Automatic annotation (TrEMBL):
InterPro entries: NRAMP_fam (IPR001046). GO terms for cellular component: plasma membrane. One of its GO terms (molecular function) is symporter activity. The lineage of its organism: Bacteria, Bacillati, Bacillota, Bacilli, Lactobacillales. GO terms for biological process: iron ion transmembrane transport. The gene is mntH. Coiled coil: none annotated. Its main location: membrane. This is Divalent metal cation transporter MntH. The keyword Transmembrane helix applies. It is found in: Cell membrane; Membrane. The chain crosses the membrane at residues 31-50, 70-93, 113-136, 142-163, 175-194, 214-235, 268-288, 308-327, 359-376, 388-411, 423-444. Keywords: Cell membrane, Ion transport, Membrane, Symport, Transmembrane, Transmembrane helix, Transport. HAMAP family: NRAMP. The keyword Transport applies.
Amino acid sequence: MEEKHEQMLKYANGPSLEEVNATVDVPKNAGFWRTLFAFSGPGALVAVGYMDPGNWITSIEGGSRFEYTLLSFILLSSLIAMLLQYMAAKLGIVTRMDLAQATRHHTGKKLGITLWVTTELAIMATDIAEIIGSAVALELLFHIPLLLGVIITVFDVMLLLLLQKLGFRKVEAIVVTLIAVILIVFAYEVLLSNPNWASVVKGYVPQTKVVTNGSMLTVALGIVGATVMPHNLYLHSAISQTRKIDYTNEEEVARAVRFAGIDSNIQLAGAFVINSLLLILGASMFFGHGDSLGRFVDLYNALSNDKIVGAIASPVLSVLFAIALLASGQNSTITGTLTGEVVMEGFLHLKMPLWLRRVVTRGLAVTPVIICVILYGGKESAVESLLLYSQVFLSIALPISMIPLTIYTSDKKLMGRFVNSKWVSVLSWVITIVLTLLNIRLVYETLATLF
């Protein structure tokens, strides 16, 4: 198997994320907690994608419009994410190729390019959420015009170049710190909002009305698209390879797969908590106040408006909200630019200077946002509508990455002893089929609304 994987790696034009591949040491013969600490980090970078500004707008809107009903979709999405991310990490560790490289290897150049275009569009949709979130936060905190804020986000990509010079563990530490800021802010605001906890628990129980109600289904699928991120499957399969592993020792590979799964599940559980807090905040503070409260600016203003949120209203809550929004946007910038590098090199075998690759990736995403801002005169409502539709697109793009991931991790010849068990393969196919059918309905209803 080792010889086969070496040949595949040569075909892939080198290791994934070569500048950080196998740069983090892990202890040998250490205890559980020390080993877990050494392997912890990639899961945090992946979890960032599950709590980016796109999640905010969909989760808070879901709460403000349908109260606690869509908590069941956050739970379902998180469980699906845990399964898929474990499979992605396992693929990267065992084959020493990321999902983009493996897909290109098995499909060839023409189909590989087509899949790259689709995946790049999904990354652009993700970047749109990050750009809008950061630009709105800059406007709220520093009164920077929206168009200028969008342009400033182009230079965020250089932040990652500086961070990587400090070492990949430093990047992971900064990401975890920003996640902690977001968690603390929303836990505090939710506690102040005094939600109906009995209704919260009930909200995690799936209800059939979600599928039969077109408006509710659209927001629900937006939550799925914002939570289960297709680009994260490519990212995780790449950054799971940042640890130094002796591939001649199969037991060491097995240890790496095990701890990568534990790290991923812990971090995604944290993302589940944050997404739940966002929806609960939307429901407890804004349910019954109209659909318009699903916008960042409206939420910022409402948090200091005692006519809406009552006695707890305070400018401090608004500022904390904007700070958390900026932290989320910056976190997502780091992971989004890394993913752009992974898919470009994996699908196209294209090498270019690191700074240029990241500027190109961000430039592709920032263009539609700038056009939207110019056309609508910097109106936040129009720009944030673009964000919501971008998250629905992510839900549509998800099966395109799920299908090859399931195929490859279920291939005994490719994965050896690490092949998916039968129940994992069956469950993965069921998830893919169900999401595809739901997304076909979403496309139909969206087109019916437009025309």
